[in-house]
Structures are given as structure tokens and as C-alpha cells.
Amino acid sequence: MSHNPPKIFLKFFRWFCHPRLKKPIEGDLMELYEERVKIDGKRKADLGFIKDVLLLFRPSIIKPADGTYRINNYGMLKNYFKVGIRNTLKYKMFSFINVFGLAVAMSVCMLIILMLADQQSSDQFHEKRDRIYRVLGKPFKGSVPYATTAYPTTNELKKEYPLFDQVVSLRFGVGGEVTFNQKNAEVRGFFTDNSFFDVFSFSLVEGNKTTALSKARTIVLTKEKAYQLFNTENPIGKHVQFTNKGLSILNPDSETDPVDWGLYTVVGVIDNENLKSHLTFDVLVSSSSLATLHEANLIDDLTQNWDMTTDSYGYVVLKEGISQRKLDHSLVDFAERKYADNEDLPEYTYFSQSITRITPGIVVSNEIKFRLPERAYWVLSFMAVIIMIMACVNYVNLSVARSLSRTREIGVRKVNGATRKNLVYQFLTESVITVMFSLFMAVFILSIIKEGFMNLWVIEHLDFNLNLSGPLYLLFFFFALVVGVLAGIYPALIISRREPVSALKSDASISSGKFGLQKVLNVSQFVVSLLFIVTSIVIYKQFKHYTAFEYGFDAKNVVNIPLQNNDYELLAHEFNTVGGVMKVSACEYVPATGTESSVDFVHPKTEEEHKELLFLSCNEQFLPNLELKMVAGKGLPAKGSGELDRYVVINEAATVKLGFANPQESIGEFFLDKSRKNMVEIIGVVENFRASLLIGGDEIRPLVLQNREESFKYLNVKISDVNPMETISNLEEKWETIGSGRTFEYDFYEDQLATTHKAVFDVASVIGYISFLAILISCLGLLGMAIYNTERRTKEIGIRKVLGAAEIKIVLGLSRGFLKLLIISIVIAAPLSYLFNTLWLNNFPNRVDFGIGSIILGSAVLLTLGLITIGSQTIRASRKNPVESLKYE
Amino acid sequence: MKNKGLGEFEELVLLAVCILQGSAYGISVKKEVEKHSGRSILLGAVHITLYRLQDKGFLKSELGGNTEKRGDRRKRLFSITDTGMQQLRAAQEVRQKMWQFIPQLNPEA
Predict the structure, then answer these.
(1) Which residues of B touch A9 (CB under 8 A)?
(2) Mean pLDDT in residue range A785-794
(3) CATH number at residue B45
(4) B73–A21: do the CB atoms touch at under 8 Å?
(5) Is the pLDDT of residue A133 over 90?
(6) Does residue A658 contact residue A666 with C-beta atoms inside 8 Å?
(7) Average pLDDT of A60-87?
(8) Residues 6+ apart with CB under 8 A from A448
(9) Predicted confidence band at A435 (pLDDT cuts at 50, 70, 90)?
(10) Whole-number CA gyration radius for chain A
């Protein structure tokens, strides 16, 4: 035969063709080819052959995807499945250890998957999500980026660069009460304009998207708020009264005196209940309404203000085909032109963030919604993966060990013609079966830990929606499948490698080498566990340290009561008459709980660069109330003794910052308060105390105190030890009589300080939980090995006993190997955990000493649990009646 | 097989198999059909139809002899079954019946 058709197509045909049809069709093809060569020549015949082959590629000729020997394979798979199930049921203890360990680890992974899925689903409903970017600002190099930018930013960008389809800015400042027919709804939101609906895909359930918010004095409400006001009535065109109270989206506590902003027309209702977005709001007010508010001096005019970079968000929609890089490039250029000459923000620069990368995303200040930074998810995922690996290691260890007793089965299978591939499939089938059992259990465990997790303080603020849905179940199923293959592949490869002869002959000789690896795996499990344990102990100690921290002031029995716009003097006077009240003072914010404000001081003579200091406004009673002592000079002046805002008291740190050699020197010195533009005189120096967050930094920051009664927001009431709750209820009664209509709120200062560090506690509990799981899984693995080992040595133990060995000797003999493992783990893990923990502690402000105690405690926990695990098996084995154990086969 | 009826192409193939009488295999059927219908037919289409007809029970097949051209790839020879013949006849009868009722062809009826 001189002519051959194109080889590759012939091969292709042979590959896809159903074996039943292969020979005759191939014959026909060849015959036809020969004929064509004779008539049309080789080239045409080749082309004809290719065409025929390609046209034969159709469903009825292609062989089935699941292999040629489908029927045969199915029988084999059925057998694998049956043997797998039987093995699972026969060795209940081992199966339980495997299933449970994998289930625990999988549930943690699934929780993380749930969280990630929830976060990823945020802002996916915007049609233009691929082109929407948020403009971020960076005040200076190395600072945390701000989600907010100057109000005119986006409009100016659109004017100057041809990159944008639409832009929109959302300005803060709307927060108060909407009233209609005596019904009130508290709302917080933004000023924005009609382009809001061009950029985002929030759809209106009522009203017209193309015109909404284009006119002055119009508002759009969310469905929820509209329902509160109008019930089922159609809200469109209704006039509502808006009273601004300075409520802010960022700060739930902010509130100012109510100001009447007049009537607004409702032009739309947004249904955002089921839309997951980083944007939260109850109301949108048309930005054209701002003009009249500016005129009435009710809100600052920011239209040309480039210095206020914290009052508005800017979003842009890029034209098709324009890259983020191009946008960033233009933004840098834009910032240079706008801010290079700005003396306060010379380094100010912009960059962009895709709307789908906001949650989860980088850490940004002034974010609308509190959320975990991307890094937190990385850490959590990392820990989950470690736990998962540990569980897989257990599976590997146990199945390799146990396979020693299954060598005969393997031998028989091999002798009967099973290839190595078949055996690998068999063991993979078994691991997948195990994992599927685990999957059920994991879903169950997940529902339990989900509850606990959602109750964590941090998580409560994250607004997670961790509901299981169809696609997620599918995802879990695939996850389980992957875990099953990963856990099963190593044992499958090892076990299937055995030679049939040696496998059939005996099982004693194979063990030595494999056990080496198992030991390494066991040790690494315990090393990881100990690392986790020590870390969680250290974090917990850090939390304890924070709660018991010496703040420098005495918060004991001090109750902080928000004034809620009541007159502080009146309240203070009334509270002073209540029995059990020892002292009442007033202040602007509660120090060391997260809020702070600042002041810029300039030396009037030298006019050197300004110095930024913490600022706290409080009355003359405040320092004595917290038992703070004056180091030099006198305290703040009381009301009625002249101009209060001329005098300040500073702390010792401030004297250093302002350049005085000792506190005495600073008394009587004058400084210029830059923002208020008045001269102040230092009349006293108070001892250092903490007014800022502990987590914010090691040092005590310089502080300025002044008696400015207009900014007081809290009363600090010191009450006596005796019957504090009764005193508080008396205070509440008093509060009621003054009759502002507000509910009485109070917090013990000590509790407030403790909850401030709740986040640290939450981290400790998460790591604690993970370390609990880690040690649980390691102990399960150890238990499995111990059970297996004692079982295999049942006869040996019987013989030893018959020959007169004491129980304790047998226990020791059986445990020695495991004990060695534990000790080695501790020896490795102790320095590691020391290194690791000092690493993060060193970057932590106001840290606790690491102390060897944590390591000792952790090791003790590990040893105890390990010994209990081993002992449970070895002691039982040593107690067994030798008659029985000798009969054991 | 749900559909026991005959498609147009199936009918042609079935007829060709009948004509070829025991020497019907892929290529001979293809040629036969091409010869009578005058249209070019794909080998794949013929094979698929042959196997489908076999599945439907209208054809049976056996492995035939080798020819020099085919190497060791033996032909699969098809022949018609009784049901196949019946089906073919039934199809023919239906047509015949319908032909009779076309007024243009029988002006006197």
C-alpha cells in the first residue's frame, strides 16, 4: 500500500470512535481513500478523508465518555463502594476518627467559604460593575487611604478628562428625622443627584429613574423608611418635613441640636433590602437642594472646597475599554495639579478602587460599612487550611497504618489481575466515601459553629449573611470531593505499590519505613497544635492585660451618662442631690474608648510649625473625679470665673512635646490655638493618663484640656460602692423628672474600657477555637495510632502477661513510642512559638510580657491531653485477660 | 427505539440494502444511494443510518470477508430483516394509496 491517509486524523478517528463501529468504518474509510487516490490524486483524497473523519465525529459514533468498559467498570466501582462501606462499618472507631476529624476541619473551611462567598456577592448587582470605580484619597505618603475625597473631585474630573461615562458624588450631612402626618422615621444618607441612578443599579420601585433627584428639594427614601412613613400609601409626590440632627452614617453616636430644613418632595423609593452593597443609606437628597441650605447657612458650602477631604464619596464609570491603569494615571496627574500648592495637603494623591474590590478589600478610612480587611480573610483561610491539612494527615496516617492489615486483600486483588491503577481507584473511592460521610457531619457542625461565630462582637458589626444555598451546597460537594482525593491519594499510591507476593506472604516486614513518615506527620501535627495553643494563651493574656491596664486614672464606680442634648449644669446639679453620688463632672468624650479630637498649637513668638495635640474638653470637676493629680499649677477654672477658653491644662507629655524642660516652666506660657485662632494660657499640668486607645500606641500622647461647656456630651458620675444599682435607678428617676423625653442611658466606665478591647478578645476566642480544633484533631490521630498499635500487639501483650510482666511495665512499653513523639513535638514547638509570638507582640502597643509561663502551660495542656489519649488505650490493653488476648486473631 | 417509522434517508438506505442483496456495507450502500438519487452523500451519514436501522431492528449484520484494500478491517455486511421488509412495504403502500388520490394524475376519478 503506497498511500496512507493523514495519520493524525486516522488516530483521531480511532480515538473517538466507538469500538463496536471502529473496524468496519475504518475499513470503509480506507477503501474510499484508496479509490479517491486513484481517481482524484493524493491531495484530494487526503482532503476527502479529513472531511469524512470530521463529519463522522458525531454523537452516535463517538464512544461514551465514561470509558469503553463501562459495564465492567461499573461492576468494579460497585465492588469498591461495597468494600469501602463495609470497611467503614467494620472498623467503627477508625472510621469515626477519620470522619469526625475531617468533618471538624471541613466545617471550619466551609465557614470561611461561606464568609468569602457572602463578601464576594457584595455589589455584584450593578450592571456597570466592571467599569465603576471609587476614587480614594491619600493625604500623605504612607497614610491609610481614605474612602472620602473632596466634594468637587468627580465633577471636576469629568470636566477635565475624557475617560468617564458618568460620575457621581455622595456627600455626607443628611441625618435626622423625616416627618409626615405625625409619623417619624430616623434616616441617614447622602446628598447626590440623578447620575446616582446612572452609575449604580439601585432600581426604584416607585418613581422615575431618569428624573429622580434632578430637582431641588426632592428626596428618595428606601422602601423600609417609606413604609414607616406612608404604610401602603403611594409616597410619590408627598411632602415631608425634614429635621436635621447631624446623625452620621459613620458615627452612630453623633447627634446635634435639631435644625428644621423645610419640606421635601418624595420622588422615589428604592428597594435595597436584598441588594448587598457597601453603600448603606436610608435617604438620598438631591444635591441641588444644597444651594438653599448654603444660603440659609445650615450646611457648609463645599462646592469649591478642596481642603475638606472627608465629607464626600466619589464614584466614576469609565468609558468602555479604558483601563484602571489609565484612570490611576490621570488621577495622579489630577491630584498633582490640584494639591501641589495646597499647604496643608501638599502630598495629597488619588487612586481608584473597583467597586467589586471594595468588599473584601484593602483597609480604608471613612468606610461606610464596617468590614474585615482582606488580610483577615487571608489569615482565617490560612488557619482553616492548616486545620484541613492536619485532618488529612490523620487520614493518611491511619489508612497507611491500617492498610498493613489489609495487605492480604490487596495481594488477592493483585493476583486476580487488578492493576495498580485499579487499586488506586479503590482506595480513592474509600477516601471519597469517608469524606462524604464527613460532609454530612460537617454541615451539621457548621450550623452549630455558625451560631457561635455570628455572636462574636466583631462579626455582629459585619452584617454577614451566612445562609446556605443550592450553589453553595454544590461548592461544598466539590470541596469535599477535592479533599477526598487529596487525603486519599498518598495512601492509595503507597498501598497499591506493594508487591503481590510480599503482600500475601506476611505483613510484618513492611512497617518500618512507613512509620518514619507517620512519626514526622504526627510530630508536625503536635507542633502546629502547640503553636496555636501558646498563641491563643498569649492573645488572651494580652486581652487580660488590656482590661486590667493602668490607665493612670481611676475609672472605678464612675458611670458615664450621655447628655443627649440636655443641659449639663441642670443635670449635674440634680444628680448631685441623689444619694450615693459622690461627684459629677462633664466632658466631651469618654477618654480611652476610641473617640478623640485634636488641637493645633503654635508658639506665638517663634511661629514655628504647629504641634498637634490631643484635645479634651471637660469641666473643672473632671480631673478630681478621675482622681488625677496636678503636677504643677492649678486645675481648670470653674464656670463663672472669667473667660474659660483662655486657659488650658496640659499633661506632662504635652510639656515635653511643647519643649519645656519641666512642667513648672510651662505655667503661664501662651500658645495660639490654630483652628480657633485665640491665645490660650497654660495654667496647670496634670499627671499623665491615657486618653487614647491602648491599641493605638505605646506612649501616652500629649493632651490639652479646656473647659468648653458647649461641647460637653457626657456626665461622669462617681457613685459610692454601696448599692450602686440603687443609685443608678435613683439617677434614672431624676432623669425622668427633668423630662427631655429621652431614655436614660448609662455605662460603667470600667465596662466601657473592657468592651473597647473586645476585638482582641474575639481574636483570642477565634484562635482559641482553632487551637482547640487543632489539638482535637491531633489527639484523634494519636488515638487512632494508639488503638491500632495496641490492637496489633494484643498477642504480644498476652504473652508478656503470661510470662509475668507487670501492668505498669506494659503500659510504659506501649506508651514509650508515643511519649517520645510528644516530647519531640514540644522541643520543636516551644522555641517556634516563642519566636512567632514575640514577632507579633513586638509590633503590638502596650504589650504583655511573653513569659515562659505560656509555653509551659501550653505544653502541659498538650502533654496531659496526649497522655490521656494514649493511656485510654494502653491501660485497657494491659488490663485485658491474657487468655482472651492470646485467642485474638 | 421510540420512533419505529422510516425517515426519507432511512428509506433510501434500506432500499439500497435490499438492492445490494448481501453485499451491502458502508461504501456500497453509499454508492448505490448516490447512483439512484444523484446526490452526494457522506459516509458518516450512511454509517449512522445503517446502525440506527439495525437498532430499530430493520437490518441485521454480520462480519464479512476481507479485501486486499482493507487490510484486516473486515466489512460489516448488512441485510434486511422481515420487519424491515414489512416496514418498507408499508411505506410503499402508504405512498401508493396517496398517489391514487391526487386529482391531477387521475382526471377521470
Answers:
(1) none
(2) 82
(3) 1.10.10.10
(4) no
(5) yes
(6) yes
(7) 70
(8) none
(9) very high
(10) 37
Query: Can you give the residue range of the structural domain that contains B67?
Result: 8-100
Cell matching residue A91: 472498623
**The pLDDT of residue A512 is above 50:** no
Contact A183, A229 (CB under 8 A): yes
Indicate the number of domains in chain B. Answer: 1
Q: Cell digits for A403?
A: 492498610
For chain B, positions 16-35, list CB contacts with chain A under 8 A.
25-27
Look up residue A28 and give its three cell numbers.
470503509
Instruction: Give ∠ CA A151-A207-A259 in degrees, rounded to 5.
Output: 50
What is the model's pLDDT at position A438?
93
User: What are the E-state strand segments in A118-258?
Assistant: 132-138, 148-149, 164-180, 183-192, 204-207, 218-222, 239-244
Burial label, A221 (beta-carbon count in 10 A; 0-12, 13-18, 19+): buried
pLDDT over 80 (residue A773) = yes
Amino acid at B36: H
Banded pLDDT at A736 (limits 50, 70, 90): confident
Encoded amino acid at A526, one letter: F
Interface of A with B (CB under 8 A): 1, 21, 23-32, 34, 52, 55-56, 58, 60-61
Residues A412, A799: Cα–Cα separation, whole Å: 31
Q: How confident is the model at residue A510 (pLDDT cuts 50, 70, 90)?
A: very low
Which of A1, A31, A58 lies nearest to residue B44, judging by beta carbons? A58
pLDDT in tens, A619-635: 888 888 888 888 888 88
Dihedral over Cα of A381, A383, A389, A391: its sign = negative
- Interchain pair A60, B27: CB under 8 A: no
- Please tell me the predicted confidence (pLDDT) of residue A503: 63
Chain A contacts in chain B segment 24-83 (CB below 8 A): 25-27, 42-45, 47-48, 51-52, 63, 67, 69-71, 73-76
Is B63 inside any structural domain?
A: yes
3-state secondary structure of A739: coil
In this prediction, residues A185-205 reach a mean pLDDT of: 88
Q: Is A543 left (phi over 0), alpha (psi -120 to 50) or beta?
A: alpha
Domain range annotation of chain A: 7-56, 132-357, 374-545+759-887, 565-744
Residue B1 banded pLDDT, cuts 50, 70, 90: very low
Which cell is A396 given?
493518611
Contact in structure between A774 and A105 (CB atoms under 8 Å):
no
pLDDT of residue A77: 80
Mutate which of A9, A28, A30, A56 to test chain B, going by most B C-beta atoms within 10 A? A28
Residues contacting A17, CB < 8 A, separation 6+:
A25, A26, A56, A61, A62, A63
**CA proximity to A206, closest of A229, A190, A187:** A229
**Beta-carbon count within 10 A of A49 CB:** 23
A68 has a pLDDT exceeding 50: no
Residue A127 above 50 pLDDT? yes
* Total-model pTM: 0.68
What are the counts of helices (DSSP H) followed by strands (DSSP E) for chain A? 28, 22
| CB-count burial class (<10 Å; 0-12, 13-18, 19+) for A375 | exposed
CB-based contact A28 B52, cutoff 8 Å: no
